[in-house]
Amino acid sequence: MAVNKIICTVNNVDYAAIRKAMCAGARTIEEVSAQAGTCNQCPGCKENLPWILASVCGCREVSLQAVLDAIQKGADTVEKVAEATGAGIDCGRCKALVANIIELGR
């Protein structure tokens, strides 16, 4: 996502804040709400949070599940996950999230 648009229109929470919460370990709508302040009820939250949480790399359209699968198959570094999935190859903005997923294993 190239533009940092507002996702939660009730609490004015943008995409970057949600990604920062994910980099800090948030993986559920409830965890994102606690860390980023989303309302989880507005149309923006209902329409966008599920796909944001399921996605790791927007540039390469790499899902969280694809990253988890790569880790399960032995990709234990950001570079190895990138080799296996393509995540982080283009712009690298998702590298912190990939590192957190490796660290937490979820």
- Compute the number of strand runs: 4
Question: Overall 3D geometry?
Answer: elongated
Task: Tell me the structural class.
Answer: mainly alpha
Helical residue percent band: 40-55%
Mean pLDDT: 95
Ranges where pLDDT stays below 50 over 5 or more residues in a row are none
Gyration radius from CA atoms, angstroms: 13 Å
- Strand residues, percent: 5-15%
Biggest β-sheet strands, sense, barrel: 2 strands, antiparallel
Total discrete domains: 1
| Strand order in the sheet with the most strands | 1-2
Order of helices and strands: EEHHHEEHHH
Count helical runs. 6
Give the N-terminus to C-terminus distance in angstroms. Answer: 22 Å
Provide a concise account of the structure shown.
The protein is mainly alpha-helical. The protein has one domain (6-104).
Can you walk through the features of this model?
- By secondary structure, the chain is mainly alpha-helical.
- It contains 6 helices and 4 strands, in the order E-E-H-H-H-E-E-H-H-H.
- The strands form 2 sheets. It has a two-stranded antiparallel sheet with strand order 1-2. The chain has a two-stranded antiparallel sheet with strand order 3-4.
- Helix 1 packs parallel to helix 6.
- The longest helix is centred in the middle third of the chain and has 12 residues.
- The two termini are 22 Å apart.
